[in-house]
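Q: Hi! First time asking for a complex rather than a single chain. Here are the components, and I think there are two in total. Is that enough to go on?
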Amino acid sequence: MFQPRAGRYALGAALALVVTLVWINHARRAERADRLETAQAQLDRGVVHTAETVYRSLVWDFGSDAELEARLRLTGALLRIEPLLAAGQLAAASQQLQQLDAEVPDQGLVKYLLARCYRALGDGERATRAEQAARALAPGLFPAPEVVR
Amino acid sequence: MRRLLPLTLCLLLACLFTALVFHSPGYFRLGDWDQYLTFFEIQRRSLIVYGELPLWNPYLLGGIPGLAHPQFNCFSPYFLPLLLGLVPGTALFYGLHVLTAAAGMYLLARRRLQTVWGALFAATVYLFCFAPYLSGGVVNRMNGSLVPWLALSMLAARRNPRWLVVQALVVGVILLEGGFYALVGGGLLLGLMCLEERGFSRRLRIAAGTAVAFVLGILLSSIRLLPTLELYARFPRSTTVYADQPLWNADRLATFPDAVAAFLAAPAVGQRPLLFEQPIFLGFALPWPLLALLLLAPLLCFRRVGLWVQALLFLVLCLGNASPLNLWALLKQLPGLHSLNLSMSLAWVLFVPLSLLLALTLERWWQGVLGRARPRAVAGGLSFALLAVAPLLVQGYDLLRRHPRAELPPSSDARAPFQQTRGERMAMLPSIRANAGVVHAYEEVIRERLESQVDLPASSFYRGEWYLRPAGGSLELLQFRPSHLRFRYHSNQPARLVINQNYFPGWRARVNGEEFRVEDSNGLLGVALPEGTFEVELRYAPPTFVVGRWISLGIALVLLLLATKVGHRVLRPFAFATSPHGPEDRQHVESREL
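A: Yes, that's all I need. Here is the structure of the assembled complex.
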């Protein structure tokens, strides 16, 4: 029934499948890393909504994990804090931002918003420190965007 | 009957995939579907409600040319189902494109492959091309599904020159649907296919025949092409996607394999804003067994140099800036092509050689395993089902699962003409269904130039959809159609009639039967009228449309004539007495390669 060379053809197909799986796996990792980077870049420009959309699409395409859940918690919290800032409830906003800063320490946008709150609340020293940290982490936030979204 | 069976299978496949995808009208909320449904509805409204061609589109951006707009496609035969209704018509519009693509690819593959199931396999692989266009809602690019017919008609015309008439019709339909990129890509593919022929004389004949068909097809689409060229001449496109990109970028070598994998097999179909720092259209969700087949292809089909050149060239073009070799940097230097953008339409061209290569590889593989005398139909049919049909259906199901059922808002009756509202992206469809129009469209071609001239009802400058300046006389609307208005006018002093639509050449006015000039009145349409009582008529009928209409009609008659026996005699110089390819093409290929 089979040709004498059938074994070679079957082996070739098996090898091709293995190489494909390795290739696709690597490509998916690269795409995931690239999209995570894109989302972080959006966050560092203050575009929280877009970053959240990218994180959600990553969960959809690649499945959820601890890192993505943490990122989504961050964007969710930032989107909840935004109305507080807009309404001038700075004390409540700064409290939530401090919590967020403790949970996710190296986010330029959190530092930037904290700096704004501290300055508005009259705490110049902490405002300056937070602003310096924000400048180092997310220089794209300066000059400040008009709307944090 | 045996010949019809595969085509019936194509039809079933097309119906199944279409039905699956269009199971939920909520699907239309995706991507740009809302935008294209808007364009469909505007054309339907012009044709059905007002009984005229959609020459002018009063609902978007303060009034813009309609038929000239690249997204308008009412002259395409695929538009006919839309007269039945927006949602079912759109599903049929899509389904007919699927069927055309499947049938075209099957017939083309029959000329290049040895088995029926191999050709069906190629046709099914070709259907994977629809996925990102579906999820992106880029309806205007589905004209690319006619590309296999371009190739098929060129091959068939070698024996029967009347196929050049079919080729001209295909070119015409592609252009009537606004498929400029598909046509450029398709033309390039035909050029490469032509080089595969043996002998200079044959190549020359085929190229000449194809050129004649292209010219006839382009002329056939004059009714729509000339107004479009006029629009583009006034509002030239510009793009920065490929600006400052080098022809060769070694940095992209590292990410190239990943970009190829993402382009062909990304798990979620659709356009990414950025991938590997470049905008990229990707995600055909090819299953990994098909990709493995692609890896086997160089081993089993290495002699099909022509197919490889075609596949690699269009892969590089489709990847754009994500490829180390960026041919767009070169193409943009050519005269008339400086505004080239969005290589996504070229995926239709890429999938022609790609589908053929995959099907050829599968055929060769089974021959290697079972031998040529063995019953290949069972093995081939099984592969066809497992490797192509099943993944395609899974893909359709996946699209459906990701975008669950949602009802569209009900359509309402037409209200005041010309009324426009400022709509958000997701509000466009209900807005146009209410005949309210949408200012925030996506039309990058002319938005910047025209949006500032739109007078919104909320604006303090808004004085109505038509008014007299200075005020004082009376103005009564006698008839409204989007591109044909009639008023009864009375004034005791000279006045200017102003229509709240963007000024664009092509509008003409008649006052009591006498021709008057329509002027640019601060960006709006204006007619200076004397004192008295008159009937004023404004009509939009650009000369490009009038001339184009006659050219199209004339070429349609020529094509009808060429389709007869007379045409066979006229077109005979472009054909061969006996073809080295054609049905015997397969034996020819076999003898060379096996």
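A: The first helix of chain A runs from residue 6 to 44. Let me know if you'd like any chain examined more closely.
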